[in-house]
Amino acid sequence: MEAIRCEKLFKTYGSGANAVQAVRGVDLTVNTGELLLIVGPSGSGKTTLISILAGILPYQEGVCRVFGEEYKEMNEEQKTVFRKNNIGFVFQSFNLIPMLSAVENVAVPLLLNGVAPIEAEIKAQELLSKLDLQDKFHVSPRELSGGQQQRLAIARGFIHEPKLIVCDEPTAYLDHKTGEMVMEILKNRVLNKDRAIIVVTHDPRIFSYADRVVHMEDGLLVEKPKS
Q1: Residues facing 69 on adjacent strands
Q2: E strand or H helix at 32, and its extent?
């Protein structure tokens, strides 16, 4: 089953002489049960592309269907509900809420989906324990290391069991052992065949976890053999 189908997708920032075409006619299909890696140099359009796929950024031309739903056919309220119910996004910049504890940050997506606070806290604690953060439940993100904040952001990204998980450099701040642990958890998520995962990365250590690797450069995608 197709999780994502993009056809002739274009995204341009600015206009006139200052226009920058970040995504140029991208065609991409991602199936359920698939973990896709997107690699390529900085500034090649990878983060723009996954932000479009996650319904965060609008696009000017083309088609982008996620689980059969076309973003251009949704209003902003419908897109917000669709993202809340179907998509988890792990940001490269973490985007954690500093005034909330680690557990409270991770529980946010569950609370937005109507899960009772006590149940949400228990689930958040269970997931944080799997990521070796069991001693950080009530600590502010500001008191955590970069690697710990990254694991916290990853936990928040899929605590609500989204059908599509999109990750921007999820292992960038992690050592080899912790990076492997995170990728094993992600890979186990996609074994549930109604889900798909897209990971943007510069980290060659995680290539073996991918079902498929595509290379992005100058806003274009090219299929790439795994190495």
Answers
A1: 66
A2: none
Its pTM stands at: 0.91
**pLDDT for 6-41, tens place per residue?**
999 999 999 888 999 999 999 999 999 999 999 999
CB 195 within 8 A of CB 201: no
* Rounded distance between C-alpha atoms, residue 72 and residue 97, angstroms: 30
Q: Which residues of 28-66 are buried (b: 16+ CB within 10 A; e: fewer)?
A: bebebbbbbbbbbeeebbbbbbbbbbbbbbebeebebbb
Q: What is the pLDDT of residues 169-221, one digit of tens each?
A: 999 888 999 899 889 988 988 887 789 999 999 999 999 999 999 999 999 99
SS (HEC) of 181-193 = HHHHHHHHHHCCC
Q: What is the side-by-side strand order in the sheet with 164-168?
A: 87-90, 164-168, 196-200, 34-39, 212-217, 220-224
The residue among 158, 108, 154 whose CA lies nearest residue 133 is 154
> Facing residues of 65 across strands?
5, 70
CATH code of the region 2-224: 3.40.50.300
Quote the CA–CA distance of 4 and 160 in Å, as a whole number.
20
